[in-house]
Design goal:
Layout lengths: L1 E3 L2 E3 L7 H34 L7 H20 L6 H32 L1
Antiparallel strand pairs: 1-2
Length: 116
């Protein structure tokens, strides 16, 4: 304890429950981010490499891109601090969704053109 004026103050600040919860939430956010990216990236990479999109549902990737974009906005606009784990995860997954969506549109367009 240190004496400051007429008050006794602790030499080091106490770890508060709120600080511990904040750290827990931050770690959970980053673990979830890594899990989401590692779970989603292999499918996106495979689709990008092979260009095969016959078994992919177009509305799924469209909705995933829209949802990811909204989560990116939520992460970047969060006050008082930016939620980087939320923003970065959804930046990667939204980018992949848009690429796969574009490949799917391209394949479907040219497939219909070839079949006609």
């Amino acid at each position: 304890m240190a004496i400051f004026g007429n008050k006794l103050l602790p030499l080091r600040p106490k770890t508060t429950k709120k600080m511990e919860q904040g750290l827990f939430y931050e770690v959970c956010g980053w673990v979830a981010s890594i899990g989401m990216i590692l779970g989603y990236l292999p499918q996106a990479v495979r689709t990008i490499r092979t260009r095969k999109t016959d078994d992919i549902a177009l509305p799924t990737f469209l909705m995933m891109a829209i949802g990811g974009f909204c989560f990116m906005l939520q992460g970047i606009l969060h006050k008082p601090d930016v939620l980087w784990s939320l923003f970065l995860t959804n930046l990667v997954t939204t980018t992949c969704s848009c690429i796969v969506f574009g490949i799917k549109i391209y394949n479907d367009y040219f497939k219909k053109k070839r079949d006609s």
